[in-house]
């Protein structure tokens, strides 16, 4: 199966790989996994006092499409409010990266990683 | 006819793995398309389909993970085509740690023995998950079926990890 140019670009030059200190109160962490392929994704968001995402980092163990999907969302979420970030849908990601149907689950993984990170942020806020 | 019926064994997670290859070879012979070389096109087509079914059945039945997944599919739970993600943080953290350890294993003083102990750890996890799975699949309670599906989902990550370890092993042994 041929990867699109954008997938290859993100795969070869992934943006924002790494992590933040998960004990830092401004850091939200989202962990998700796709049983279909055994891929694991960690997305961390640095969120300021106004609920704006200042920075994002990811670590993904999986195929090229999973890495590209997570790399792409770290770029997309920066500067967005948490509500805007959770509005990103997997179809936006799949369309941008021209993912074939068998790789749609990689974009679902990235969408769910954002939602998991935001859920983590909100659970910390209420504590 | 389901795969268990095709192999003439009970529909169960417990399969006699010493008998299975023998039955497979027998069925292979019976359905081999070469046997129907002088038959009609229709006979040939049926043989090809039957032969493919025998191969599929064998590959599903011989591995515990695919066998368990197939058992649940017979009960109407389709795990093979699901796209949902799992969010069990503690479980995923462990998977992430294992993958990180594997990624950095070449830098260790004795990478091959480090790899071996990582492999042992994963195999232990798989073994205890399979034991859990066997008990859950013996039950016909809906809640146990749900739990069985969860164990299968987790096992998929561990088996993936195991195959990554084997790839790394080949890589390191070639150096």
Automatic annotation (TrEMBL), chain A:
Domain (NIF system FeS cluster assembly NifU N-terminal) spans 2-126
Q: Which family does it belong to?
A: Belongs to the NifU family.
NCBIfam families assigned to the protein according to its UniProt record, in alphabetical order: iscU (TIGR01999)
An example Pfam family from this entry, by short name, is NifU_N
**Region forming the signal peptide:** none
* PANTHER family for the chain: IRON-SULFUR CLUSTER ASSEMBLY ENZYME NIFU HOMOLOG
- Return the GO cellular component terms, semicolon-separated: cytoplasm
| Function (record text) | A scaffold on which IscS assembles Fe-S clusters. It is likely that Fe-S cluster coordination is flexible as the role of this complex is to build and then hand off Fe-S clusters.
Q: Which domain of life is it from?
A: Bacteria
User: Sorted alphabetically, which CDD domains does this protein's record hold?
Assistant: IscU_like (cd06664)
Annotated coiled-coil segments of the chain: none
* Protein name, UniProt field: Iron-sulfur cluster assembly scaffold protein IscU
Q: Which GO terms describe its molecular function?
A: iron ion binding; iron-sulfur cluster binding
UniProtKB/TrEMBL annotation, chain B:
Q: Which residues form the J domain?
A: 2-74
Q: Which GO terms describe its molecular function?
A: ATPase activator activity; protein-folding chaperone binding
Gene3D superfamilies referenced in this protein's UniProt entry, alphabetically: DnaJ domain, HscB, C-terminal domain
Assigned keywords, A-Z: Chaperone
Question: Where are the membrane-spanning stretches?
Answer: none
> HAMAP family attached here?
HscB
How does the record describe its quaternary structure? Interacts with HscA and stimulates its ATPase activity.
Quote the protein name from its UniProt record. Answer: Co-chaperone protein HscB homolog
